[in-house]
Design goal:
four-stranded antiparallel beta sheet, 8 helices, 24% strand, three-stranded antiparallel beta sheet, 251 residues, alpha+beta, Tetrahydropterin Synthase, Chain A, 9 strands
Length: 251
């Protein structure tokens, strides 16, 4: 046999063998289309397909992180906000991701954007700022309902990252927060004054009923003053102080 024919046969066999070998990674699945018709899904590892007849589409099962474009949204109470969000999704059914939807990644991103505008448009600003976890959960549930069963794609997490308010709204909220802080400070100060007055009234009652308590307090004050430098102390008895307070001469 002609050596060139043998060489040509060997080359053709090697080319067909190379075209038949497919390596599927651990995090992938290979969807096989035979003459354009679904023929099964191949698992990770070494796989052989029929060249020309079979076509393998590899689908990653890893979680994909996508940052959505910032959206200008009008809330239910007519406040315009700029919202940044991120969506995490993964393929749970490679067959549906190939057969039922074209470019499932782009489809899930557009679905997330539409759902984000819809849900936030039905929420008030206070709810968006104070209950973001509930809004994130609602976003994920709505996206799952529309993508998991028909497309085989599951949204594992949807997070509203940042909410930017107009400058006039930021100034108004800052003034409101400052007024609230001043209100709390005045309430705390008034409560302190009330407690101090009650304590002084109780102390006056005790001293009135027990005069010896006044003398003990007087002695304690002398001890405290004696510890200070450059202080001259003239001790007076309680009788002298009482007489001076009554305007009479001490005995």
């Amino acid at each position: 046999m002609n050596p060139w024919i043998i060489f040509l046969i060997v080359v053709v066999v090697l080319v067909l063998l190379a075209a038949a070998i497919r390596i599927v990674k651990q995090y992938e699945r290979g969807v096989i289309l035979r003459f354009g018709k679904l023929a099964g899904v191949r698992n990770p590892g070494f796989n052989l397909i029929i060249p020309i007849v079979d076509h393998m589409i590899k689908i990653s099962l890893r979680i994909v992180t996508t940052v959505l474009e910032p959206q200008e949204i009008i809330t239910r109470d007519n406040v315009t906000v700029r919202v940044d969000a991120v969506v995490y999704f993964m393929v749970i059914d490679p067959t549906k991701a190939v057969i039922n939807v074209e470019q499932y990644r782009q489809a899930i991103i557009q679905l997330a954007l539409t759902t984000l505008r819809s849900v936030l448009g039905q929420s008030e600003l206070d709810e968006l700022l104070a209950h973001r976890d509930q809004i994130n959960l609602r976003l994920r549930q709505i996206i799952d309902e529309q993508s998991e069963e028909p497309w085989g794609v599951r949204a594992t997490l949807v997070e509203v990252k940042d909410v930017l308010l107009p400058e006039d709204m930021q100034r108004a909220m800052a003034r409101q927060a400052e007024a609230e802080r001043e209100k709390r400070a005045k309430v705390i100060h008034a409560e302190g004054e009330r407690l101090a007055a009650a304590t002084l009234a109780e102390a006056a009652k005790i001293i009135h009923n027990q005069p010896a308590a006044l003398q003990l307090r007087y002695l304690q004050t002398l001890v405290e003053m004696s510890g200070e430098r450059n202080s001259t102390i003239i001790p007076l008895t309680v009788d002298i102080l009482s007489a001076l307070s009554r305007g009479t001469s001490p005995k």
